[in-house]
Amino acid sequence: MKKKNKLGNPMAVMAVSEVARTDAGKKAINDTVTALKVAILVAGGIFIAKYGYGKYKIYRAKKYARENGNKPEVQTAFMLYNAMIGNTIDLGFFEIDIPNGTDESTLNYLALNCDFISVSKAYKTLFDRDLLTDVNNELDSAELRVFFNRLRSKGSDVTTPTAKLQPYPVNTTLYCRNKNGITLLRADEKNGVVKVTNENMGNYEYGKEIGTIKKIVKNTDGEIFYMIDRAWKNDYLFGYGYANHRDVLNKNPDTK
After folding, report:
1. Rounded distance, CA 101 to CA 186, Å?
2. Checking CA distances to 119, which of 3, 220, 228, 256 falls within 20 to 30 Å?
C-alpha cells in the first residue's frame, strides 16, 4: 500500500504560494484579514451594546421600583410576576426563568381590582415583559375565561335606580358579585315578619355560591334583600342568611 503525501499535491501547493506572492494575491489576503477584523469588531460592538442596554434596563427597573413602589399598579405588577414567573437568574447578557408553578388564585384575586393598562405598563418597565403574553402562556382556556371575566367585572350593582331593581325568583341560586366579598347577617321569620340581627352567618368571596332564595324582602326605601338558604347548611334550624340584591348575582360571574 502506498503512503499518502501529507503535503497533498505539490503542484497545487506551489501554485497557491505563487499566487500569494503576487500583488493581487497579497491584496486578496489583506482584504480578507480586514474583513475578518471588521466582522469581529462589529460582533463585539453588538455584544457590548446589547450587554450594556441589558444592564441599563435593570438599572432603570430598579430605579422605577424605588421611586414608584408605593403605587398600586407597581405593587400589583410585582405580585402578578411572582404568581406566574417566580425566580429569574441573571446571567449578565441574558436571563433564565425558573418557574415555580402558576398561582391562579392570586391572579384571579388581582384581576378583580386592577387597572390592567397601567399595571401592564409597570410590568413592562419592571420586567421587560408583556403582561398579556405571560398571562396567556400561563393559563389554559378555562382559566383565561375566569381571569378576563374578573378584569371586566363591575362588582356590585351600584348604578341601577332603586325603582328599577328587579328581584330574582324564589329558589334561585345566588353567587357573590361584590369584589370585596360579603358577610351574611342572620335572618329569622316569625308570623310573616323577618327579623335581622348582626350575627355572622358566613363570609363569601367573589364568585362563590351562597345558596338559594328563601324569601324576598323589600325595605321601606325600596331596596331588595333576600333571606338565603345557604348551601350545605341547616338554615331551617339555625337561621337564614340575609344579603342585599346589589351584592349577589343569579349566575356565577366567573363563568357567565
Report:
1. 40
2. 256
At the topology level, CATH places domain 69-152 in Annexin V; domain 1 (1.10.220)
Is a pLDDT exceeding 90 seen at residue 250? yes
Strand partners, 174: 211
Q: Domains of the chain: which residue ranges?
A: 13-54, 69-152, 162-249
CA 233 to chain CA centroid, Å, is 35
Give, in order, the Cα–Cα distances in Å from 149 to each of 7, 16, 112, 141: 76, 74, 9, 12
> What pLDDT, in 10s, does the model give residues 147-193?
999 999 999 999 999 999 999 999 999 999 999 999 999 999 988 89
Q: How many CB atoms lie within 10 A of CB 215?
A: 16
Cell 453588538 -> residue: 46
- Condensed to tens digits (0 to 9), the pLDDT of residues 1-25 reads 544 555 555 555 455 455 446 666 5
- Residue 120 half-sphere exposure, CB side, CA atoms within 13 Å? 11
Contact 77, 122 (CB under 8 A): yes
Contact residues for 17 (Cβ-Cβ < 8 A; gap 6+): none
